[in-house]
Amino acid sequence: MTNLAYDTPADGGDVSQQDIAAMQALRPVPRISIQAFCETEGVASPVKLAGEDRRMAKAHLKVHMGGIATAIEFYQSAPTPNLILLESRSEPKQLLEQLGQLSEYCDPTSKVVVIGHYNDVGLYRELIRSGISEYVIAPVSMTDIVSVVSSIFVDPEAEPIGRSIAFIGAKGGVGSSTIAHNVAWAMSTLFKSEVVVADLDLAFGTANINFDQDPVQGIAEAVFSPERVDEVYLDRLLAQCAEHLSLLAAPSTLERVYDFDPDAFSQLIDTAQRSAPLLVLDIPHVWTGWAKSTLIKADEIVITATPELANLRNTKNMMDMLKRLRPNDPPPRLIINQAGVPKRPEIGSSDFAEPLGITPMAVIPFEPLLFGNAANNGRMLGEMDAKSPIVGLVNEIAHVLTGRSEIKAKKKAGLGMLLGKLSRNKK
User: Does residue 6 have a pLDDT over 50?
Assistant: First the structure.
């Protein structure tokens, strides 16, 4: 059989839509140590990018330039990690000999992945037979690296991890929390799926008011005692709001200050994702280490903005930053709220969305009577008026965020028609 050598460098910079879709299906890698020994920049670059992906946040990855010979020298005086990534341009016979030498210094529990440049079925079978976890042919992409690590260390039979959806406002007072709570309620009632709402605004959170709850315990107990957080402890802190909806309520008091480390909510979120298929994170309009970290790790981000210039500026800044921090994920979703306030100059939805380069997931018109009555009665919009067009929009958002439908293209007259319909309903 003819051995074919491949030396084409992988493009470590741009991530295709196909790669993004593939990455969305991957589960986070557990807390492991990884050391890579690369002979070419074409392999080292995607390996480094893989280490920066949010799914690899818990893993500790170190990249060394140099192949198997460098690894042999290195491990003569250092312990081996959970996983060793080895790039080799050696021919099959020489590669097998080098791996034999390396095995003398490797801990038996260490996994080894070889990135080779020869497409040889015989070599692949021999490597697997000798205990190598996987043989990948260069060029490789960042997605290839994360996929192979995930396939080795994530148990395919483990319980599925719930999907986290983070809601944040482009400015204070834009209605992000109200939308988050109503979308969570819609998900739980429409799909009969267990949903947990976590109110991360510990000082001024409104979820307890909106759901008409007054629990003795809530999210503060979990955040200030992370070592106690497991599924049993979390269940004790949850307040039942509806048949399939539970709440981690904020204390909404000023008895203490709420300054947190960047990873303060990580243990809580990880546990909540093991407890329910859907986790809605209500994040206050702040830019702190913990808020940034929580947004980076979320499966989906929804930014709510009102159609004003300051909101557009803030949304643009957040979009640009989050795209840089999450290059292997889709951009955040956008909801334009409180559109059509009488006598208020505002930016049209198409003009608002154009510089952002995205289509709004929804444009929700200003309807103070419906929202005000719901807020004052501690009820959801769907409980107040299930036939309202706004409730229909909220249900559409729930469908899109759970992957049950895509964003529908709206006609330009759509908002005007909806506003007209709302005004006729008032008469």
Answer: no
- Map tokens 């007259």 to a residue: 413
**DSSP for 243-268, written as a single string:** TTEEEE------SS-----TTTTHHH
Q: Residue 22 — very low, low, confident or very high, per pLDDT cuts 50/70/90?
A: confident
Beta pairing class for 239-242 and 245-248 = antiparallel
| Cα–Cα nearest to 275, from 191, 156, 194, 185 | 194
pLDDT in tens, 118-156: 998 999 999 999 899 999 999 999 999 999 999 998 877
Alpha carbon of residue 346 to chain centroid: 31
CA separation for the pair 40, 37 (Å, rounded): 9
Q: Do residues 406 and 361 touch, judged by C-beta distance below 8 A? A: no
Residue 182 is given by DSSP the state: H
Q: What average pLDDT does the segment 347-376 reach? A: 95
CATH for 23-153, options being 1.20.1050.10, 3.40.50.1970, 3.40.50.2300, 3.40.50.620: 3.40.50.2300
Rounded distance between C-alpha atoms, residue 414 and residue 90, angstroms: 63
Q: Using a CB cutoff of 8 Å and minimum separation of 24, what contacts does 88-92 make? A: 88/39, 88/114, 88/115, 88/116, 88/117, 89/5, 89/7, 89/39, 89/40, 89/116, 89/117, 91/3, 91/118, 92/3, 92/118, 92/120, 92/122, 92/123, 92/126
Q: Tell me the pLDDT tens digit for each residue of 211-229.
A: 999 888 899 999 998 889 9
Please check whether the two domains, 23-153 and 163-426, share a CATH topology: yes
Number of H helices, E strands in the chain: 18, 13
Q: Are strands 33-38 and 60-65 parallel, antiparallel or unpaired?
A: parallel
pTM of the complete model: 0.80
If you classify domain 163-426 with CATH, what class do you get? alpha beta
Domain ranges of the chain: 23-153, 163-426
Task: Please report which helix (H) or strand (E) contains residue 219, including its range.
Answer: helix 219-224
HSE-CB at 266 with a 13 A cutoff on CA atoms is: 17
